[in-house]
């Protein structure tokens, strides 16, 4: 079912830029480059293909806090890894398992590793049951790693092994050459979508309460009222896009320091009315048409800002703007940004269908162009 091995693993960063990984140390060092970020509190499964163990698809999710759910989580993740490869026509021949978690206060990294050992075994068993042997299972905490597959012959010390110094490994050099960078930790990426803190959150919650009283009865009323609200929502979104466009940011969309400037462009009342309006599926689909060209970057900034306005009892309403942010990111080639936004949307609402479909398509490496083409056609038909 499992193997502790130093055999070759091959990562293709670009068509002509490959790096060979040999053993647990290289595999541990490679993870941030494979994902594009430093995973926090994460389970990661990486598919391997062929006799050289070519690295394929990756699946990441948070570590469940309740050990009672570990076995079921492991089964679901193993099935996702096997099924996603099958749909792409290249089922994985093996897998690497990573558990990433910083030790909690008063706990050593070794103790954290031991606490998650049963989870690692669940993942190894679940993958093995689907004929996807786990060649390595690693625990990563800060700058150290342990192998759960170590046969006890001295390859892993009791206190773990040190990871290579950042930027000094063959994987780091190959990633730099390929133009690949690690964009911080997962928590730092998710923070761009986190609800605003006080006192802004209290003001925003009051604006939501007032907007809900005014809008929800109309949205749930007759056809005429619903159509009117849709039109008002789209008009508001267009006005805000124009405002965001005029306040162009020289730092670019990937700079978190620009987010407070975007927050200042929205009033609480505007944010509440637009977020509530986007709960309507047809309105959200209309907003999804701003997904390429100059419109895309501006729309992404707006959707991010709206997600941050979903506070307190209205946090679940963030699924709509988060999904729109994920769609724009995927449409413009930022798969990492798409996975972060869509993953956050599914944490808030696991049954949000648009987010589920986009997340699956992004993870399977599908081309967003067919969906873009459909949206262009809808827009052209409406405008003629």
List the helices and strands and how they pair.
Blueprint: E1 8-14, E2 17-22, H1 23-35, E3 42-49, E4 54-62, H2 70-87, E5 94-100, H3 109-115, H4 117-129, E6 134-141, E7 144-147, E8 161-162, H5 170-177, H6 186-190, H7 200-219, H8 223-246, H9 259-263, H10 268-277, H11 281-287, H12 293-308, H13 319-331, H14 335-348, H15 353-363, H16 369-383
Parallel strand pairs: 5-6
Antiparallel strand pairs: 1-2, 3-4, 3-5, 6-7, 7-8
Helix pairs in contact: 2-4, 7-10, 8-10, 8-11, 8-12, 12-13, 13-14, 13-15, 14-15
Please give a handful of descriptors for the protein shown.
8 strands; 384 residues; alpha+beta
How is this structure best described in words?
- The chain has helices spanning 23-35, 70-87, 109-115, 117-129, 170-177, 186-190, 200-219, 223-246, 259-263, 268-277, 281-287, 293-308, 319-331, 335-348, 353-363, 369-383, and strands spanning 8-14, 17-22, 42-49, 54-62, 94-100, 134-141, 144-147, 161-162.
- Helix 8 (223-246) crosses helix 10 (268-277) and helix 13 (319-331) packs antiparallel against helix 14.
- The chain is α+β, with helices and mostly antiparallel strands and 384 residues long.
- It has a six-stranded mixed β-sheet, with helices on both faces.
- Helix content is 52%, strand content 13%.
- Strand 6 and strand 7 (144-147) form a beta hairpin.
Which stretches of 5+ consecutive residues score pLDDT under 50? 1-8, 11-17
Give me the secondary-structure category: alpha+beta
Number of helices: 16
Total beta strand runs: 8
Binned strand content: 5-15%
Distance between the termini: 60 Å
**Using only CA atoms, what is the Rg?**
23 Å
What's the order of the H and E elements? EEHEEHEHHEEEHHHHHHHHHHHH
Spatial shape: elongated
- The overall pLDDT average reads 85
User: What does the largest sheet look like?
Assistant: 6 strands, mixed
Instruction: Give the % helix.
Output: 40-55%
The multimeric state of the shown protein is single chain
How do the strands of the widest beta sheet line up side by side?
4-3-5-6-7-8
């Amino acid at each position: 079912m499992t193997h502790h091995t130093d055999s070759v693993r091959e990562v293709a960063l670009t068509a002509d830029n490959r790096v060979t990984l040999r053993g647990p140390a290289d595999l541990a060092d490679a993870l941030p480059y494979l994902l594009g970020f430093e995973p926090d509190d994460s389970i990661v499964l990486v598919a391997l293909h062929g006799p050289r163990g070519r690295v394929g698809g990756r699946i990441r999710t948070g570590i469940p806090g309740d050990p009672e759910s570990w076995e079921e989580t492991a089964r679901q993740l193993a099935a996702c890894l096997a099924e996603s490869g099958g749909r792409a026509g290249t089922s994985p021949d093996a897998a690497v398992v990573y558990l990433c978690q910083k030790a909690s206060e008063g706990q050593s990294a070794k103790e954290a590793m031991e606490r998650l050992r049963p989870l690692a075994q669940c993942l190894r068993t679940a993958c093995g049951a689907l004929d996807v042997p786990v060649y390595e299972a690693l625990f990563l905490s800060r700058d150290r790693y342990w192998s759960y597959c170590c046969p006890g012959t001295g390859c892993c010390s009791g206190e773990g092994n040190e990871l290579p110094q950042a930027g000094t490994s063959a994987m780091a050099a190959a990633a730099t050459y390929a133009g690949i960078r690690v964009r911080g930790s997962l928590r730092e990426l998710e923070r761009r979508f986190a609800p605003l803190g006080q006192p802004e959150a209290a003001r925003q919650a009051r604006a939501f309460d007032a907007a809900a009283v005014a809008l929800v009865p109309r949205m749930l009323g007759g056809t005429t009222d619903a159509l009117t609200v849709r039109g008002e929502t789209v008009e508001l979104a267009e006005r805000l896009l124009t405002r965001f466009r005029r306040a162009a940011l020289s730092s670019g969309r990937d700079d978190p320091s620009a987010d407070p400037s975007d927050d200042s462009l929205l009033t609480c009342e505007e944010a509440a009315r637009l977020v509530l309006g986007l709960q309507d599926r047809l309105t959200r689909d209309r907003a999804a048409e701003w997904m390429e060209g100059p419109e895309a970057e501006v729309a992404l900034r707006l959707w991010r800002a709206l997600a941050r306005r979903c506070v307190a009892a209205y946090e679940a309403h963030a699924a709509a703007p988060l999904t729109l942010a994920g769609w724009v990111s995927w449409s413009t080639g930022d798969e990492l940004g798409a996975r972060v936004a869509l993953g956050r949307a599914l944490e808030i609402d696991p049954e949000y269908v648009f987010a589920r479909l986009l997340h699956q398509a992004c993870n399977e490496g599908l081309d967003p162009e067919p969906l873009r083409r459909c949206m262009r056609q809808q827009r052209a038909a409406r405008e003629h």
